[in-house]
Design brief:
single chain; about 500 residues; alpha/beta; Udp-n-acetylmuramoylalanyl-d-glutamate--2,6- Diaminopimelate Ligase, Chain: A, domain 1; UDP-N-acetylmuramoyl-L-alanine:D-glutamate ligase; Protein-Tyrosine Phosphatase, Chain A; 11-stranded mixed beta sheet
Length: about 500
């Protein structure tokens, strides 16, 4: 593609060279530059791409996109100056990939909590309605059966545009993305006019360092989404909801338990049987239906309302909404794994005291016969995390099964001793089973009717990191192996 074709949506100054230079790809990491590429000099918290401009030229870059004044001796290299290279990257990437968002129904989710779960719920509903979806978020970029891991919840704009083009090529009709506050702040979702923007909730998070200077900036960055979408679907129960839509350019629709919302939840209650933990509620307002959600906790009602709000606007039938929510699961987030027996086994990503507190408190409300928590703690991380996790599990679990979890360059038994320091502050019972597969086997062999067993810490991870090496380890596979071994006894 000619350089001038990918610059048509931005304001720029031609510093030197030709606008008719042929561009083979757009690169923002100088290590990946090859002949004929355009190198975009991004400024980050810890790095500045302008420092690597000369290196990019030496590797064959045909063009540089800069925001600072730089001197390039090779006059055959085209230099384009813009006000903000991050913003420019979004628009030139969109044009490079021929604006794939215009060929998709685009849905963005922002909020402190619930983004990943809400994405999964919307995807489940749409796919029940026969609408193939691609997703981008914490779990990576998912297109059909293909998973591409990403470094950030919301990847750089180039990766998003490239992924959307692949989604279109793969037959997807919709794209659902987690729009983090950092992603919005750093222009990663620019150049997309979203069909739907969703606000889940707002609470303290991501303050300081490379993130946000204060809560006000954090809030304002989330609010940016509602100047980038046609319809905003907003949690009316959140105390910041009116600030979120201040200055919004979209049509606003609301959800919540508040009777003034456009869709309202009532009569919520927990649902429990062996192998199923969920929540029920009745929906009124724009649609009326009785809803069961296959993800535990009262908080799941809010995530479901987000998904229902999008589905109603997309004219999805009630039967597809109900089926989607009753069958939804999020890999590694209170993910229930089918097992024989009258107990419930689930996998969760809880890997610190706060996330462990949240999931165990939620599961306690289901009144299990016993709540059993299998967990470890990461090596080469602050010891206080281990003490806190041990104390949390000891306080909220009937039995803690202490094992390994990414010991890295530390000895597993040393980490376990630190966890025991925390458990000793409680009267919680515990056993130590250092090998994770053996620990899972212990839990399954000793399960009693009505137990809830949580395998905490790994979630969607499919590896165990030991001495600098990441070994493949998927807990779903371990469970299957254990069940087969026990069956063969």
């Amino acid at each position: 593609m000619k350089l001038n074709e990918i610059l048509k949506s931005i304001n720029y100054t031609l510093v030197q060279g030709s606008l008719h230079t042929e561009i083979t790809d757009i690169i923002y990491d100088s290590r990946k530059v090859t002949a004929g590429t355009a190198f975009v000099c991004l400024k980050g918290y810890n790095s500045d791409g302008h420092k690597y401009a000369s290196d990019a030229v030496s590797k064959g870059a045909s063009a540089l996109i800069v925001s600072d004044d730089i001197i390039i001796g090779d006059k055959n290299v085209t230099v384009i100056k813009v006000a903000d290279t991050r913003e420019a990257l979004a628009y030139i990437s969109a044009d490079f990939f021929k604006n794939p968002s215009k060929e998709l129904t685009t849905i963005a989710i922002t909020g402190t909590k619930g983004k990943t779960t809400t994405v999964a719920m919307i995807k489940s509903i749409l796919e029940c309605a026969g609408i193939k979806c691609g997703t981008i978020g914490t779990l990576g970029i998912i297109i059909g059966d293909k998973l591409l891991k990403t470094d950030n919840t919301t990847p750089e704009s180039y990766e998003i545009q490239k992924a959307m083009r692949e989604m279109v090529n793969d037959g997807c009709k919709a794209m659902i993305i987690e729009a983090s506050s950092i992603g919005l702040k750093w222009h990663r979702v620019d150049a997309i006019e979203f069909d739907y923007g969703v606000f889940t909730n707002f609470s303290h998070d991501h303050i300081g360092g490379a993130e946000h200077k204060d809560m006000q900036e954090y809030l304002e960055c989330k609010a940016m989404l509602f100047k980038k979408c046609r319809v905003g679907i907003i949690n009316r129960d959140d105390e910041k909801w009116q600030e979120i839509i201040k200055g919004a350019t979209c049509r606003v629709e609301t959800f919540g338990f508040d009777g003034n919302a456009d869709i309202v939840a009532k009569n919520d209650k927990l649902l429990s049987k062996p192998g199923f933990l969920g929540v029920h509620f009745d929906l009124t307002g724009r649609r009326e239906m009785s809803v069961d959600v296959a993800i535990p906790g009262h908080f799941s009602v809010y995530n479901a309302l987000c998904a229902i709000g999008v589905a109603i606007d997309m004219n999805i039938k009630n039967e597809d909404i109900l089926k989607g929510l009753k069958t939804v699961f999020v890999k590694g987030r209170v993910e229930i794994v089918p097992v024989p027996g009258n107990y419930t086994l689930l996998i969760d990503y809880a890997h610190n005291a706060l996330s462990m507190e949240n999931v165990l408190t939620t599961l306690r409300k289901y009144n299990p016969n016993r709540l059993i928590t299998l967990f470890g703690a990461g090596g080469n991380r602050p010891k206080v995390r281990r003490y806190e996790m041990g104390e949390t599990s000891g306080r909220l679990s009937d039995l803690s099964v202490i094992t390994e979890d990414n010991s890295r360059f530390e000895d597993v038994m040393d980490i376990i001793e630190d966890i025991k320091v925390g458990i000793a502050k409680t009267d919680g019972e515990y056993v130590v089973v250092p090998n994770r597969k053996d620990a899972i086997k212990y839990c399954i062999e000793n399960a009693q009717d009505g137990d809830i067993i949580v395998l905490a810490g790994k979630g969607h991870e499919d590896y165990q990191e030991i001495r600098g090496v990441k070994y493949h380890m998927d807990e779903r596979e371990l469970i299957s192996e254990v069940l087969q071994e026990l069956k063969m006894k």
